[in-house]
Amino acid sequence: MALIAGIDSSTQSCKVVVRDLETGGLVREGRASHPAGTEVNPVLWWDALLAAVLDAGGLEGVVALSIGGQQHGCVCLDAAGEVVRPALLWNDTRSASSADDLVAELGAEAWSTGAGSLPVASFTVTKLRWLRDHEPTNADATVAVALPHDYLTWRLLGYGPGNADFSALVTDRSDASGTGYWSPATGAYRLDLLEHAFGREVIVPRVLGPADAAGETAAFPGVPAGILVGAGAGDNAGAALGLGAGRGDVVVSIGTSGTVFAVTDTAVADASGTVAGFADATGLFLPLVATLNAARVLAAAGTLLGADHDRVADLAMEAAPGSGGLVLLPYLEGERSPNLPTARGSIHGLTLANTTPSNLARAMVEGMLCGLADGLDAIVSRGVAVERVLLIGGGARNSAVQRIAPEVFGLPVTVPPTSEYVADGAARQAAWVRTGEPPAWTLGRTTRFDASTQPVIREQYAAAGRALGY
Fold first, then answer.
1. Which of 441, 389, 376, 440 is nearest to 415 (CA)?
2. Pair type for strands 327-329 and 206-208
3. Which is it for strands 413-415 and 447-449: parallel, antiparallel or unpaired?
4. In 10 A of CB 167, how many CB atoms?
5. Which residues have C-beta within 8 Å of that of residue 206, sequence separation ≥ 6?
6. Which terminal CB of the chain, N or C, has fewer other CB atoms within 10 Å?
7. DSSP classification of residue 396
8. How many angstroms separate the CA atoms of 262 and 250, rounded?
């Protein structure tokens, strides 16, 4: 039996799935944790990848693999292939003022038409500007810039410290589209935007097509030499591929961050900056809205209430829609959509009558979902037709989220079976690279949740934002 492997190097951990090439059936899996924080030494991702591979029983029998990874992280490499400094991750907001500077210098239209998106603190291009201005010694030492999954692919191919062949550094169009210096519309780098931000030229990875091979693995513990390696993908594009999402599907992912994205035939450019005009992993496009605060809002609710996830869900369902007038603006670590990198979370409408554990639990769920619903509205406003909403991610397993989401979104919600969809998407890509055709694997049984719309939830949320001048 020929096997395929998919790897998801996410913010919190590295997951490996090994699947049957023919059927897509799960054979084995493994994982390893990543350190917390908004900056991480990429060498620790490499160590976690090898640990996750061993936890999965190794890759013997695997004929192809691919890596999905967190987007935007800025991996700076020196001439010897060593990491210059810990990578600034997507959720590191220190480059917010750098993003403002870049937009002011060239104008919103130049960025949205040139790179498909406006620079925000999450994007690689803003982190490079921050590095130039705040750590000039590290900037001077930087010869090449890669994204997290690019770095890991490069290491799997046998490159790295002491073997710094940057011509072997590759990426894919989905992850390249999140840098701020690659155009989804033209399929080419905008090196003028990169040089404007960083002040000089720097080596960037070659962009491979969806079915192109990056090369073959070198030998490592648990990793035999000679496994075909795909281009990889950004995490959201990987999830879309893993789900088999197509035209008419909107995916709402509730993980460390929250994302709302759709598969479209044409590139989207939004000069307001709300919708990022990314590319997908198949040759199409992936307009996306991201929030910084998603599943961690649910975790914070558990901390406040001294309750586990199941108890938070039970409490939330005991309260009426609108939480008795209690509203959470869930900007616990700043926010990307809306672009409020220095904001903090706030609770509104607190009274003696509504101060109950159930109202607080429901307000936390409603607030998180309202931020995602705003993203859904923004996607629709760009002309995207919605036929199905797919709810995925760790937060989607919460029963209260499943039942309240249709009330907030105003649409039925479909929950696919629990799976590691980014890793699954990487596995699908690996199968595509191996066979030359996208695999016809089935998604499995889904569950649909219907509920009548409850306008009070979003009305209260919008009013609370206006009260703070957002």
1. 389
2. unpaired
3. antiparallel
4. 9
5. 167, 169, 170, 171
6. N
7. G
8. 5
Cite the DSSP H helix spans in 7-81: 42-55
- Token couple for 457: 């939830």
> What distance in Å separates the CA atoms of residue 9 and residue 237, rounded to the nearest whole number?
13
Closest among 417, 414, 394, 393 to 405, alpha carbons compared: 414
* Residue 440 and residue 352 in contact, taking contact as beta carbons nearer than 8 Å: no
CA distance 89 to 71: 8
Per-residue pLDDT of the chain (470 residues; tens, 9 = 90+): 799 999 999 999 999 999 999 999 999 999 999 999 999 999 999 999 999 999 999 999 999 999 999 999 999 999 999 999 999 999 898 999 999 999 999 999 999 999 999 999 999 999 999 999 999 999 999 999 999 999 999 999 999 999 999 999 999 999 999 999 999 999 999 999 999 999 999 999 999 999 999 999 999 999 999 999 999 999 999 999 999 998 899 999 998 889 999 999 999 888 888 999 999 999 999 999 999 899 999 999 999 999 999 999 999 999 999 999 999 999 998 888 888 888 999 999 999 999 999 999 999 999 999 999 999 999 999 999 899 999 999 999 999 999 999 999 999 999 999 999 999 999 999 999 999 999 999 888 999 999 999 999 999 999 999 999 98
Note the pTM of the prediction, 2 decimals. 0.91
Q: Fill in the amino acid letter for 206.
A: R
What's at 239, amino acid-wise? Answer: A
CA distance 413 to 389: 5
CA distance 15 to 10: 8
Q: Which two tokens stand for residue 15?
A: 């997951």
Active-site residues, by number, are 235
Tokens linked to 83: 């990491």
Distance, in Å, from the CA atom of 218 to the CA atom of 224, rounded to the nearest integer, reads 7
Give CA–CA dist 53/152, Å, rounded: 13
Distance CA 331, CA 360 (A): 16
CA distance 167 to 228: 18
Q: Tokens 């292939």 — which residue?
A: 81
DSSP letter assigned to residue 177:
T
Return the closest-CA partner of residue 62 out of 19, 1, 4, 16: 4
Judging by beta carbons within 10 Å of its beta carbon (0-12, 13-18, 19+), is residue 314 exposed, middle or buried?
middle
Q: Is 403 exposed, middle or buried (0-12, 13-18, 19+ CB in 10 A)?
A: middle
Question: 239: part of which helix (H) or strand (E)?
Answer: helix 235-243
CB-CB neighbours of 137 under 10 Å = 9
